[in-house]
Design a protein that fits this description.
Length: 271
């Protein structure tokens, strides 16, 4: 069980107060809040700070204060707790949160049943928080569960490599299908958009945000969530790296970086 998901629930409550904004603007605000928090812990150089400040300037002035205020503070508290968890988890993580048997048992016990399962390859904490906050602002019930899937190496293969134990092929669509069956869902969706964009070279943060098409993803989820309950998760997230090349996005990064989110996948239920 993790103790940092409470901070994410607090962040959802704060963000949902501006849930009337367009999804992609909403996502950018949350994305920037996490990066600013990560840079403050990481001790980034001035050029990295300027890069994120330039991105913040593309957001309407009335909403920029949140990125330096409540959302930033929520993100900062979460990151400190999350980083401590990764540092001190050790063998317990391998036996529990990184073990698919354990995760499936948890979902069966706590979630029980949903109508649709979404597995979003490489979708990270900013995307999950955006989705949760937007639906919360629309008066849906949203739950981010205290258990998470920990992916120690931050790549799909760590998860899909465990599927053989369940007599499944090692591909992410089979994970989505397994979740569908265990949670008695009627349908599942596997999306690769975020992962495909993450693997492209030369993307700025701004072009990354545009290319993952958050509005399109939200509309797809909303199609199912209007009438039914939905589980949303991923296989891993992505990392924000700060080096001599500037700020960029990857996953499975092995060194210290401002946001090491490729090691975590959240479980969000909307009903």
């Amino acid at each position: 069980m993790t103790d940092f998901t409470n901070e994410l629930e607090t962040l959802v409550k704060t963000a949902s107060t501006i849930g009337n904004l367009p999804v992609e603007t909403f996502h950018k605000i949350i994305f920037c809040s996490f990066i600013k928090a990560g840079l403050s812990i990481y001790g980034a150089q001035r050029e990295h700070e300027l890069e994120i400040e330039n991105l913040v300037r593309t957001i309407a002035t009335p909403y920029r204060g949140l990125i330096n205020g409540k959302l930033y503070l929520n993100a900062l508290r979460f990151l400190k707790a999350f980083n401590a968890f990764l540092k001190n988890g050790g063998q317990a993580v391998i036996l529990k949160e990184a073990n698919l048997h354990y995760i499936l048992q948890f979902l069966e016990n706590k979630v029980g049943k949903v109508d649709t399962v979404f597995v979003l390859d490489c979708a990270s904490i900013p995307e999950i928080i955006t989705i949760a906050s937007k639906f919360s602002s629309m008066r849906h019930n949203t739950t981010i569960y205290e258990e998470v899937f920990i992916n120690p190496i931050g790549i799909t293969r760590f998860l899909t490599g465990q599927l053989e134990k369940f007599d499944r092929e090692g591909c992410l669509s089979q994970y989505a299908k397994l979740l569908k069956e265990r949670l008695n869902a009627s349908s599942y969706v596997k999306s690769s958009t975020v992962d495909l964009v993450t693997h492209r070279q030369g993307y700025t943060l701004e072009s990354f945000l545009k290319s993952i098409e958050m509005q399109k993803l939200f509309d797809q989820i909303n199609h199912f969530a209007k009438q039914n309950s939905v589980l949303i998760t991923s296989d891993h997230g992505y990392d924000i790296v700060a080096d001599e090349h500037g700020l960029y996005i990857t996953h499975g990064y092995k060194e210290e970086c401002p946001l090491n989110f490729s090691k975590i996948a959240l479980f969000l239920v909307i009903d």
